[in-house]
Backbone:
């Protein structure tokens, strides 16, 4: 049990997100009075006090009624993150105090420091936009945000790669996401709005019609805005019949102009949905990027996570795609899958090394509440934080052997060890859409069940989220509402 007592502020969410990084999987409760602490477990007391017209933050961690650590931030105004908002500085000071105190008494590594957000590279972009040089940004990341040096260097390098593709910003440019929420089966870690084909097959034709209707309706609202990139994801788009996917792709070209699209990606993630007919259809439509996602190359793990294919199926699907002529293939793996350690990961990476894909995305397992896994996690063995860290380092070294460099990075809640997901690519083969969706510097219009549009206002550096409903039946019945939601925002860009 970990108890937290806040005095002088109510940044409960921010404190909770940081504290749980040090106490992963433990119950954290906020108390209203210090008397609620009985001497068992940890009590974290965090006080924000005002001295004349200045602020100071003090964190005291108490265990068994003994003060273990005391840390003081002398002045909130001494915090230098190149932002003047006092509320932002107060939050940073509070988090710094807790981070330093807990780091002094616990054997837990928190390499991302006080950062708990999904997109750490956004900080680098904002600082670059302000004209700061790399050394100054590195100092802010390590001293103020408490990042480990290698994390700071990684996101600086990634941001430098991304800026070539993201800038200059434009309100007249957008990308398109198409959600195909169908899969052969549901993996135990999956939290996406996906429907197994056993149940969803009868809806595929009408869903295809509604997707095309939504695409057509949105195209009428765009005025002079030009399409940039397209990403067809899910789910597994290649789970639906070839003719349906072909109709959706051809409709995108017809409505938005094939010549305007710089890049189009199709998730062909599950090898048990890939055959020669589908791949030839994609190739004939000039699809220039696909994903074939094994997640693991270990047969026992594939069965545990709910996959109905084998390692051999993955290798054969990859070879077929290469023979048909796909130039850029991404492969996803997940570090920290149940019952997997360094030996199992090494087996997966050895086999991917032989395939030599142009892109590799390394995910750290996130235990989402909407997944099957969250309800059965106690039935499996999960590796420790230090082992997960070693496995991610192993993945990075294999990526280097394949001449792949990191080009986008993001984090998720409930992720093992407070680590990250990293996309690696051969230079010049980066997925532009992946960078855009992560850095949120361009409008992305999403169609289909579960799609979330992100309307970007570059002059204000502001984003508005416009979600479609997740439930398949609701989407089919409320399609006009989904169109109207987006139209209202598109008109304001």
Residues:
């Amino acid at each position: 049990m970990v108890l937290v007592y806040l005095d002088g502020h109510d940044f409960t969410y921010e404190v909770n997100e940081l504290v749980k990084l040090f106490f992963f999987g433990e119950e954290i409760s906020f108390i209203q009075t210090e008397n609620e602490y009985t001497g068992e477990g940890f009590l974290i007391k965090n006080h924000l006090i005002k001295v004349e017209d200045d602020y100071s933050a003090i964190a005291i961690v108490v265990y068994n009624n003994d003060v273990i650590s005391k840390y003081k931030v002398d002045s909130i105004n001494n915090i230098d993150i190149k932002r003047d908002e006092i509320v932002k500085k107060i939050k940073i000071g509070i988090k710094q105090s807790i981070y330093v105190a807990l780091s002094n008494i616990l054997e837990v590594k928190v390499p991302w420091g006080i950062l708990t957000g999904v997109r750490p590279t956004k900080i680098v972009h904002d600082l670059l936009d302000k004209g700061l040089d790399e050394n100054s940004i590195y100092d802010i990341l390590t001293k103020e945000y408490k990042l480990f040096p290698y994390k700071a260097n990684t996101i600086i390098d990634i941001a430098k790669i991304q800026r070539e593709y993201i800038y200059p910003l434009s309100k007249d440019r957008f990308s398109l996401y198409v959600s195909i929420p169908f899969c052969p089966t549901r993996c135990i870690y999956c939290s996406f709005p996906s429907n197994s084909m056993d149940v969803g097959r009868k809806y595929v034709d009408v869903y295809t019609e509604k997707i095309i209707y939504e695409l057509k309706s949105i195209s009428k609202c765009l005025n002079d805005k030009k399409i940039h990139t397209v990403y067809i994801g899910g789910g597994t788009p290649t789970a639906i019949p070839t003719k349906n996917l072909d109709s959706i792709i051809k409709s995108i070209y017809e409505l938005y102009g094939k010549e305007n699209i710089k890049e189009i990606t199709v998730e062909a993630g599950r090898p048990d949905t890939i055959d020669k007919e589908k791949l030839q259809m994609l190739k004939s439509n000039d699809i220039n990027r696909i994903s074939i996602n094994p997640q693991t190359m270990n047969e026992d793990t594939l069965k545990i996570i709910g996959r109905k294919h084998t390692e051999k199926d993955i290798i054969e699907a990859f070879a077929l795609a290469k023979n048909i002529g796909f130039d850029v293939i991404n492969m996803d793996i997940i570090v920290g899958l149940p019952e997997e350690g360094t030996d199992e990961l090494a087996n997966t990476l050895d086999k991917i090394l032989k395939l030599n894909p142009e892109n590799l995305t390394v995910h750290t397992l996130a235990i989402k509440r909407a997944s099957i896994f969250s309800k059965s996690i106690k039935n499996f063995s999960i590796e420790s934080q230090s082992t997960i860290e070693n496995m991610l380092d192993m993945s990075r070294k294999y990526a280097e052997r394949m001449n792949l460099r990191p080009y986008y990075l993001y984090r998720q809640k409930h992720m093992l060890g407070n680590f990250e997901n990293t996309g690696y690519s051969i230079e010049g083969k980066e997925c532009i859409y992946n960078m855009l969706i992560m850095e949120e510097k361009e409008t992305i219009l999403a169609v289909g069940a579960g799609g979330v549009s992100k309307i970007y206002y570059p002059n204000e550096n502001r984003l508005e989220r416009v979600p479609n409903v997740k439930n398949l039946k609701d989407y089919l019945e409320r399609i006009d509402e989904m169109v109207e939601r987006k139209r209202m925002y598109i008109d304001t860009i």
